[in-house]
Amino acid sequence: MSNPFILTFGVEPNKLISREKDINSMVENFTAEKPSTSVYLITGVRGSGKTVTMTALLDKLKKNNSFITITLNPTTNLLEGLAANLYEHPELKAAFIKADIKLSAVLDISIKAEGPAPNVEVQLKKMLSIVKKLNKRVLIAIDEVTNDNNFRVFTSAYQMFLIEKLPVYLVMTGLYKNINALQNEENLTFLYRAPKYQLEPLGIMQMAHYFEDTLGVTEEEAKTMAIFTKGYSYAFQVLGYLKYENKEKKLEAIVRQFDEYMEEYSYEKIWSELSNREREIVSLLAHSESGKMKVKEIKEQTGLTDQSFPTYKKRLAGSGVILVNTYGYCELALPRFKEIVINWLY
Fold this sequence. Notes:
Blueprint: H1 20-30, E1 39-43, H2 50-62, E2 67-72, H3 78-88, H4 93-98, E3 101-103, E4 109-111, H5 120-133, E5 137-142, H6 149-163, E6 168-174, H7 176-183, H8 189-192, E7 196-198, H9 204-215, H10 219-229, H11 233-245, H12 251-272, H13 276-287, E8 292-294, H14 295-302, H15 309-318, E9 322-323, E10 329-332, H16 337-344
Parallel strand pairs: 1-6, 1-7, 2-5, 5-6
Antiparallel strand pairs: 3-4, 8-10, 9-10
Helix pairs in contact: 1-2, 3-5, 9-10, 11-12, 13-16
């Protein structure tokens, strides 16, 4: 049997702890007669399971005959991608052809009966009107969004689709800073109001049960392993992978390998995306005895004020790097991040 745990980001592993509650909540809303929202934003630290959660949502809605699900590549023209995917969908193509809608080889859309080809946004409205007549809904999924012109043009058009009551729904994943930047765009107010799922750490007992059942370890060892991961989804996969490959070894014997994997595949990237001030705060926490400090002490040592510090705290917490569960304290959220950061600084 091959290793049931996986190290590749964005790929659904054989051993997956599902976020069923969040997924079911989104499905129930999208399938309601009058959904309360047409957009969901899924955010969290790298490796927290954003892509896997979105994929699980798509898989559920693909089974619903009312939904057409389309995944767009954020590095290509999003409006053209939507038009092309809609046009080629087997449940829709015949209706578009009957309506005399044609998709050219260069992804421009033309209507034979109406002279010069209008832009893609206008044609998409025509296509989505046909979708509406067929009593279908379109769910658009975009992974790892960024606040660039391509996405701003797409979301502006999407906002117009909503105003015209066209049956479009949107789910996006992204890092906290990217989602936050989009929500603060002046012309995209609908995103500011969109529900945001901040992926929380995985449950300790759920992880422990998976370790025990899959790896054949004792209940006590499984719980120790689960606590070690701090609920970080990627750490759960890495630790499970290493233990599966080294079944005879105890946790202490594979920590070094764990650190190497986490540093190379996750933590170096997370660190590179922090601002200098954020790194300063994380470094202070890393050098504290427990990885936890009073907010007052952090402000004193960084020179940050009561007005400036909350901005950095919010960004670090939103990015999944720190926890602020205890009033007046900040602590590092990721397993072995403290030790790895200290090694970088010496």
